[in-house]
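In the previous lecture we treated proteins in isolation. Real proteins rarely work alone, and many bind small molecules. This record shows how such a complex is specified: first the sequence, then the SMILES for magnesium ion.
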Amino acid sequence: MRIAHLSVRNFRSYAAAEVDLGPGLTVVSGRNGAGKTNLLDALYFGCTGRSSRTTNERELVRFGEQVVRVAITAEDRDGRHELSVGFEPGQPKRMTADGVRVERMADVVERPLASVFLPDRLELVKGTPSLRRAHVDQVVAGLWPARIATRRAYAQALGQRNALLARVRAGAASVASLPAWDAELARHGIGLMADRAAAIELVAPVFAERAADLGLDGDPAVAYRPRSHAADAAELAAELAERHERDLERGFTDHGPHRDDLVFRREDRELRAYGSQGQQRLALLALLLAEREAIAATRDAIPVMLLDDVMSELDDDRRARLVELLRGAGQSVITTTDLEHVPGANDVDVTRLSVAADPAGLAPRASLVVVDVAA
Ligand SMILES: Nc1ncnc2c1ncn2[C@@H]1O[C@H](COP(=O)(O)OP(=O)(O)O)[C@@H](O)[C@H]1O
Ligand SMILES: [Mg+2]
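The predicted 3D structure, ligand included, written as C-alpha cells:
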C-alpha cells in the first residue's frame, strides 16, 4: 500500500496543496521555513489521524482558518483507497476510509503504515520509557494488527485495578477483591510482554545490521527490557500479589509491563545516557529501517518512510547508504534544504517536489508545492 496522492486544505502553512508522490523515493526540497516538515506531517496526519509533531491539534489549523482537511489516495495491487481526516477545533475529528466513517485510523486495514523520522523524535532514544513502550506497541500493531486488542485489554485492566486500589484506600472496597484483578491484569500482561518480546526479536538483528550500514560502530544493539521476568500469568499474578501493600501505599500499580522499556546500547553502554546526538540519531534511523523491514517480511505491507531533515547530519557515505536502503524497497519521502545532499536525487526513478513560501504574496503565508520537472 503506497500513497499516490495527498490533498490538503488549511493545514499549517498550506491553504491548499495537491501532491502526487512517486512509487519509490520522493525528495521534497525547499528553504528553511518553506513548509517541508508541514508537508511530511500532513502525510502522517492523513495516514494516522494524528500529527507527528504535536498533540495540540489547534496548531495544525492554518492561521485565520477554521477547518482542516487532509485526504490521502492510497494504492495497492487491488485498487485505490481514499482516507480523509477533517477537523475543526472544538469539534470531534471526522475520519473516513473509502467514504465510511471510522473512529480510529489504526483500525483501518486498507491504509498505508507510516514511519516517521523527525529530529524531535530523538526523544525516543533519550526520553522517558513511556515513549519507547508506546513505540514498541505501535510496531506490534504494525506487525500483527489484531494484537492491538491485547494492549487495550491490558490498559483497561490496569485502569480498573488502579481504581480498585483507590477504593480500598478510601475504605470503600476490601483488599480481598484485589487478587481477581491481579489475575486479570496478569493474563493480559503476559500476552502483552510476549507480543513486545516477539516484535523486538524480529527487529533486533536487522537493527544491528542497519546501524552498522549507517556507520554506527561499537556493536550497536537494541533489546526489550521487561519489568517482570514472569514466565506465565500465574507468576505475574504472584508478583502483583507480593506488592499489594506497596501499591496500596502509593495508590497505583507499580509493577507490570506498563513499566517496560527498550534499551539501545553501544559498546555495552546505554546510548540514552552515553551516546552522542549523532549516535542517537543513527540508532533511531536504524530502528525505523529495521522495523520497516520486519513488517515487510511479516505481512504484505511496507511502511512509508517519512524522513525529515535527516541528510544534513550525515556524511557523504552515510547519505549514499541511506538512499540505497530507501530505494531498495517501498516508498519513502525525504526532506532536504539542498538536493545535493541526496545522492541520486536527479535519477529518473526519484520524484522531486519543491516547496516554496508563496513568492507573490497572493496568499499570505501559504506554501506552494511544485513538481520539479526541470531537474
Ligand atoms: N497553523 C499554521 N498556519 C500557518 N502557518 C503555519 C502554521 N504553523 C506553522 N506555520 C508556518 O510554517 C512554517 C514552517 O514550516 P516548516 O514545514 O516547519 O518549514 P521547513 O520547510 O523548514 O520544514 C513557518 O513559517 C510557520 O510560520
Ligand atoms: Mg523542517
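Summary for your notes: Residues 12-13, 30, 32-38, 59, 61-63, 365 surround adenosine-5'-diphosphate (ligand 1) (CB under 6 Å). The domain at 120-300 is CATH 1.20.1050.90 (Glutathione S-transferase Yfyf (Class Pi); Chain A, domain 2).
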